[in-house]
Amino acid sequence: MNQAFNLKSSMQPVYLFEIKSYKLSDISEQIDYLNDKTPNLLANAPVVLDLNRVEKTLQKQDLIELIDYLKQQNINPIGAQCHSPSIKKIIIETGLNHSKIEKKQNVDFLSSDIGTRVITQQVRSGQQIYAANENLVILNNVSAGAEVIADGSITIFGALRGRAVAGAKGRENTQIICQNQHAQLISIQGQYMVDEQLPKLGNACRFYIKEDRLEFDELTTS
Predict the structure, then answer these.
(1) Is 62 helix (H, G, I), strand (E, B) or coil?
(2) Which of 158, 160, 167, 216 is a Cys-bridge partner for 174, taking CB atoms 3.0 to 4.6 Å apart?
């Protein structure tokens, strides 16, 4: 048989959009803010829409308008999820797949139930590293314009000048630790900080989720 195509894996993660408000003005404001602070973060990104928080009020037309708006922003909705049978029906009627991305719970930092990927080289501008179902340890710097993503936790023994995304598929108790904080964006389980929200430049920091909020501690060495 002549092969018509090659099948290869992709490093690009699927982002989970947990929708809290489907008002286009609210979504537009947040996407514009992200695009201003972290250009190309969402460019052509595949996303799954989590609609559980809006299931009581969401109508079919609301979802259609949301999908159309995201496509106009070069964001690619590939599916949606919700516990409600009526919303599942609406999802299918709009042409999206009904997807299910589970949140993994009770996972210790760099726990042994998932593997750990170690990167020794500098991660340069324009590069993306994605540790699927793994923790990620980087023994070098992450340049501005670079992106490091892990389904587990991330530890960087160098300067973080780009973007770091941990708990990319919702895995709980994930963290980001960096030796030298200059990040453009920090995101854990969908919660994020950019620029002015981040701690002082140059400090060692630990980022984590507490009560559904992204928090950080500045680390000191004796």
Answers:
(1) helix
(2) 167
pLDDT at 194: 87
Residue 64's H or E segment, with its range, is helix 60-72
Question: Could you give the CA distance from residue 171 to residue 102 in angstroms, rounded to a whole number?
Answer: 8
From residue 146, give the alpha-carbon distance in Å to each of 33, 37, 132.
19, 14, 17
Residue 212 and residue 191: Cα distance in Å, rounded? 8
Encoded amino acid at 68, one letter: D
What domains can be seen in the chain, in order of their start residue? 15-98 (3.30.70.260), 115-219 (2.160.20.70)
What is the C-alpha to C-alpha distance for residues 100 and 151, in angstroms, rounded to an integer?
Answer: 16
| Residue matched to tokens 């920090």 | 186
Q: Give DSSP secondary structure letters for 86-143.
A: HHHHHHHHTT-EE---PPP-S--TT-TTSEEEEE-S-B-TT-EEEETTEEEEESS-B-
Range list of β-strands (E), the chain: 15-18, 46-50, 76-81, 97-98, 115-119, 128-131, 134-138, 147-150, 154-160, 163-166, 175-181, 185-188, 191-194, 204-210, 213-219
